[in-house]
Design a protein that fits this description.
Distance between the termini: 95 Å
Structural class: alpha+beta
Largest sheet: 7 strands, antiparallel
Strand content: 25-35%
Radius of gyration: 28 Å
CATH class of the largest domain: Mainly Beta
Strand order of the largest sheet: 5-4-1-2-3-7-6
CATH topology of the largest domain: Thrombin, subunit H
Helix content: 10-25%
CATH superfamily of the largest domain: Trypsin-like serine proteases
CATH architecture of the largest domain: Beta Barrel
């Protein structure tokens, strides 16, 4: 056989083999692992996510009354902007229908101080909503529309989430319309000092302005969280978003529906983080629990016999890792509940039963703002402060000769943060007025509202004072 015939024969054999292989593949049908789609999950949950728009009537800027200013900017002399008129501020957000009869959850900051709330259901029908109740400490609000047979979402258990689980975020970013983004659960039990009680789910699913109040759902289409905040230098999503877990939301929704407010339990201690040095002193292999720095008088903790220096290891069988977690676990308990605390005292573990009382009204009001333990919301947006008492001095090592208002927390997206105000700063003056009490601080903020807030601030790290001007 010559070489030409050999080449032709080989070509025929290879062609036959290729045809046989192709026939076998076709006989097997479609691929066993096609590209996964999240359409079914989206179809199950998207109808229950609504767009919310609000109108808020505010006083117009004093400059608008200046005819020279108005002519310079070619502004019409209409009733909304002319001579002492008012302006209407519009804002957008999202919400989630939790029952067919019109109950909707959203963020408190979406509807706070709104004069009118309009709910758009799946881009088809609009309803005017009424506020049933709000809970600023958790940033949860319950509103209602007069409707029936609305598509309601299935409430999932956020306690079953694990880091790495896939989730979808649904909302109305930048007002462009309902949008779905995908990501994973990046972390659990986050506290970023944006609200008084926070046990947040962190996700890298894209969350942007307008997503607030929207749904975070698992791969079964169940609600596991409500989108609440982002951390961003630019104002857009950078893969660090936060959602309020359903375990906290539903604890708040029930009393809001029945009473319009939330009654919280409290313990009555000043908690402190357990670091490596403290753990070593107490004979612990690693940091765990929360150290009681102080037991306040006439509180459930005092009545139960808790002492300064005790370490709370667990509450009702749930391990406690930090002060924020302790506060959340206690606050989510029912008033009158007898909590079982495992504590470490003088090297020995023991169980203490504590009957939880209702958080006093004064402390509850203080918890209404952003921030953590005992912080009060100020009239300076995104800033939580408290008076510089001797107890605060002992905890923060502020020099005795420095007086003012102690900054507990600063919203990283606020004007104050952008101008450099930091937690731990001491505000000594506001608009050239010395401030040493919350009342003086708020009074000074109330003046010259058309100008930035001008503050003299002592920074302990630098051991010097600086001036900061914060646009309102």
């Amino acid at each position: 056989m010559n070489s030409r015939r050999k080449t032709l024969l080989c070509a025929l054999v290879l062609a036959a083999l290729a045809l046989t292989t192709t026939s076998q593949v076709l006989a097997q049908g479609p691929l066993e692992n096609p590209l996964r789609s999240y359409a079914d999950v989206a179809d199950r949950s998207m109808p229950a996510v609504v767009n919310i728009s609000t109108d808020k009537v505010v006083e117009s800027n004093p400059y608008f009354d200046d005819p020279i200013f108005r002519r310079f900017f070619n502004m019409p002399d209409d009733e909304n902007h002319g001579r002492g008129g008012k302006q209407v501020q519009h804002s957008l957000g999202s919400g989630v229908v939790i029952s067919p009869d019109g109950y909707i959850i959203t963020n408190n900051h979406v509807v706070e101080n709104a004069d009118r709330i309009i709910v758009n259901v799946h881009g088809e029908q609009e309803y005017e909503a009424t506020v049933i109740g709000t809970d600023p400490p958790t940033d949860v609000a319950l509103i209602k529309v007069d409707a029936k047979d609305l598509p309601a979402i299935i409430i999932g258990d956020s306690n079953l989430l694990r880091v790495g689980d896939q989730v979808l975020a649904i909302g109305n970013p930048f007002g462009v319309g309902q949008t779905v983004t995908k990501g994973i659960v990046s972390a659990l039990n986050r506290n970023i000092n944006l609200m008084a009680y926070s046990d947040l789910i962190q996700t890298d699913a894209a969350i942007n302005p307008g997503n607030s109040g929207g749904a975070l759902v698992n791969m079964e289409g169940e609600l596991v969280g409500m989108n609440a905040a982002i951390l961003s230098r630019s104002g857009g999503s950078q893969g660090i978003g936060f959602a309020i877990p359903t375990s906290m939301i539903m604890r708040v929704v029930d009393p809001l529906k029945s009473d319009g407010k939330v009654a919280r339990a409290y313990l009555g201690v000043l908690p402190q983080e357990v670091n490596q040095a403290v753990a070593q002193y107490y004979g612990l292999e690693k940091p765990e629990g929360v150290l009681i720095a102080q037991v306040n008088e006439d509180t459930p903790a005092k009545k139960a016999g808790l002492e300064d220096g005790d370490i709370i290891l667990s509450v009702d069988g749930r391990d406690i890792r930090n002060p924020s977690m302790l506060r959340n676990v206690i606050s989510l308990s029912d008033v009158g509940h007898e909590a079982k605390l495992e504590i470490l005292r003088e090297g020995k573990r023991k169980t203490v039963d504590v009957k939880l009382d209702a958080l006093p009204e004064q402390e509850l009001a203080q918890a209404g703002g952003h921030g953590s333990d005992d912080a009060q919301s100020s009239d300076l947006e995104g800033v939580s402060v408290r008076e510089l008492t001797e107890r605060v001095r002992s905890m923060t090592q502020v020099p005795d000769d420095i007086d003012g208002i102690y900054v507990m927390a600063v919203d990283p997206t606020s004007n104050s943060a952008r101008e450099g105000l930091q937690p731990g700063d001491v505000i000594q003056e506001v608009n050239r007025q010395t401030v040493t009490t919350i009342k003086e601080f708020q009074a000074a903020l109330g003046e010259k509202t058309d100008r930035p807030v001008f503050m003299r601030v002592y920074r302990p790290q630098a051991q010097r004072s600086i001036f900061i001007a914060v646009p309102r």
